[in-house]
Amino acid sequence: MELVDSHCHLDLAAFDADRDQVLARCRALGVRDILVPGVDAEGWPRLLALCTQEAGLHPALGLHPVFLDRHRPEHLAELARRLEQDRPAAVGEIGLDHFLRGLDRQRQRELFEAQLRLARDAGLPVVLHVRKAHDEVLALLRRVGVVGGIAHAFNGSLQQAEGYLALGFRLGFGGTLTYEGTRHIHELARRLPLEAMVLETDAPDMPVAAHRGERNSPEFLPDCLAALARIRDEAPERIAEVTSRNARQVLRLH
Predict the structure, then answer these.
(1) Considering only CA atoms, which of 53, 55, 17, 49 is closest in space to residue 34?
(2) What is the CATH number of domain 3-251?
(3) Which of 48, 51, 74 minimizes the C-alpha distance to 63?
(4) Measured between alpha carbons, how far is 227 from 76 in angstroms, rounded to an integer?
(5) Is the bond into 195 cis (omega within 30 degrees of 0)?
(6) Residues with Cβ within 8 Å of residue 168, at least 6 apart in sequence
(7) Which one, of 6, 14, 15, lies nearest residue 56 by Cα?
(8) Cβ atoms < 10 Å from Cβ of 100
(9) Nearest CA-CA partner of 116 in 125, 104, 129
(10) DSSP 116
């Protein structure tokens, strides 16, 4: 079985000590492709270099809403330049976070909308971070008009899920599938069409249940696959095939 991790921050310092070994274990387990989303302009050169050096790693470049204090107006111009020069797989991780307190909502919105326009003009999909803001994000997506993408760590309603699907998006599911208490996620995973879903780890965050309290890793993606197969009562082979195809289609991976 071949798997795609559609969201993994493999460029972060948490992997500096053993990144090569992690990637070797991933490949042995069938994790063939990994999307590595950027979160700030300072990290883009390192992220791009990593993805150039390692087969199967695909960069996304974006300004994450949680790290507003790191972003400067000139970073949008740099993003536009890099989208043309480096042609990443996607623009991301971008979005709106209304869960965390103290984040300037107006500034988040302006930054998000500007990046959506850059993605639209570049013809690239987007990778979304959305917490407590799905309706606002959907309204902006409809207004700006991007080519689709992935709603990472989706935790919205079925109606909101349908809104994303109508706009050409896929929905990311990961470590929360592996916990017994995440009933809403399990219900979404059961009721959504498999063609709507992609697998992700969000490593080093959001560890799977078997590695609670540890650094998460893309090598644990098979745990997410097994959980989704169990929840849906479908063969893991079919889950792997369809979710990997979904990710490759929306991100245009070859």
Answers:
(1) 55
(2) 3.20.20.140
(3) 74
(4) 39
(5) no
(6) 147, 148, 149, 250
(7) 6
(8) 10
(9) 125
(10) H
Torsion of CA 27, 29, 30, 31, to 10 degrees: -70
Which secondary-structure segment (H or E) carries 163? helix 158-166
Residue 254 has pLDDT above 90, yes or no: no
Proportion of the chain above pLDDT 70, given as a percent: 100
Kindly list the strands in the beta sheet with 31-37, ordered across the sheet, starting from the edge strand earlier in the chain: 3-5, 31-37, 57-61, 90-97, 126-131, 149-151, 169-173, 197-199
CA distance to 87, 193, 202, per residue, from 198 (Å): 22, 11, 12
Backbone CA torsion sign across 157, 161, 164, 166: negative
Q: What is the CA angle 220-218-65, rounded to 5?
A: 120
In our burial notation (b when 16+ CB lie closer than 10 A, e otherwise), range 36-62 reads: bbbbbbebbeebbebbeeeeebbbbbb
- Domain definitions of the chain by residue range: 3-251
Owner of token pair 């992690």: 22
- What tokens does 10 get? 């493999």
Torsion over CA of 92, 97, 103 and 106, rounded to 10 degrees?
80
- Beta-bridge partners for 180: none
Question: 6 — phi, psi (to 5°)?
Answer: -85, 5
Q: Measured in whole angstroms, how far is the alpha carbon of residue 98 from the centre of its chain?
A: 18
- pLDDT, tens digit, for every residue of 52-88? 999 999 999 999 999 999 999 999 999 999 999 999 9
